[in-house]
Amino acid sequence: MTTTTIPTGRRGRNRPHSWPVPAALVTLSAIPLTAGALRLVQLSGGPAVMPVDHRFTGFPGALIAHIMGAAVFALVGAFQFVPRLRRRSWHRRAGRVVAVAGLGVTVSALWLTLFYDPQPGSGTVLFVFRLVFAPAMAACLVLGFTAIQRRDIPAHRAWMMRAYAIGLGAGTQACTQGIGEAIFGTGTLQGDLARGAGWAINLAAAEWIIRRPAIRRRRRARRSASAHRAPTSAYAGRSTTS
């Protein structure tokens, strides 16, 4: 008689659910990465498939570094969420690449914010947002690196997820800007707040994912405590009435 073995345990449970997460993250980053690729084509002398941005008529090294770093950070970082890859040396090597690319993104973002003319249609609020979130992303990357150096895997995972959430803000902003314009109309302040909402949504989602295991453990502990108290209470009731 032939028996069929059904995969059990972590390896068996994670296999069907490994790829939807990176696929969703790549899809989310598709719009800003496509816009960045088209901008690079334009800067290299290709067809002007996008409106010309006269801020970058010279040699915009910071913009090129930002686009290239963001592409590596978003695409390679997405596959860091595959459980099977996290159990291999690929995760460690790719993590170094992601960290370096992420730091390049933050430095180039600050350079573009401070030393280039403001983006058309943006205002002071977005300027402040960028001055806050770029250093915050760099800090998360550094804290994630120091956490893994001391073998604190939960802290490493949490800080790297926060950094990735900030770095993927441009993808969510493509959605929040469209929704914001449909509801509140166009305007500098509305556009700035819509972009800020993209970062806020990503960070809120990251915090929920980070804290979800602890919430589940507390719920299981409460259910277990309730299950242990219930028989004792029932036995006490029977004793007093006999």
Describe this structure in words.
- The structure is a single chain.
- α2 runs antiparallel to α4, α7 crosses α10 and α9 packs across α10.
- The N terminus is likely disordered.
- The protein is globular.
- The chain is built from ten helices and no strands.
- 78% of the residues lie in helices and 0% in strands.
- It has one domain.
- The chain starts with 8 loop residues before the first helix and ends with a helix.
- With 242 residues, it is an all-alpha fold.
In short:
This protein has 242 residues and is mostly helical. The chain has helices at residues 9-14, 20-28, 30-43, 61-78, 83-86, 89-115, 124-149, 153-167, 169-184, 188-241. Helix 6 runs antiparallel to helix 7.
Low-confidence stretches: 1-14
Mean pLDDT: 85
Could you give the order of the helices and strands? HHHHHHHHHH
Query: What fraction of residues sit in β-strands?
Result: under 5%
Overall body shape? globular
Largest sheet: none
Count all strands and give the number: 0
- For the record, the count of structural domains works out to 1
> What is the alpha-carbon Rg in Å?
24 Å
Report how far apart the termini are: 57 Å
Query: Helical element count?
Result: 10
Indicate the structural class.
Answer: mainly alpha
Provide the helix percentage.
Answer: over 70%
Task: Provide keyphrases for this structure.
single chain, 242 residues, mainly alpha, 10 helices, globular, disordered N terminus
Please describe the topology of this protein.
Layout: H1 9-14, H2 20-28, H3 30-43, H4 61-78, H5 83-86, H6 89-115, H7 124-149, H8 153-167, H9 169-184, H10 188-241
Helix pairs in contact: 2-4, 3-4, 4-6, 6-7, 7-8, 7-10, 8-10, 9-10
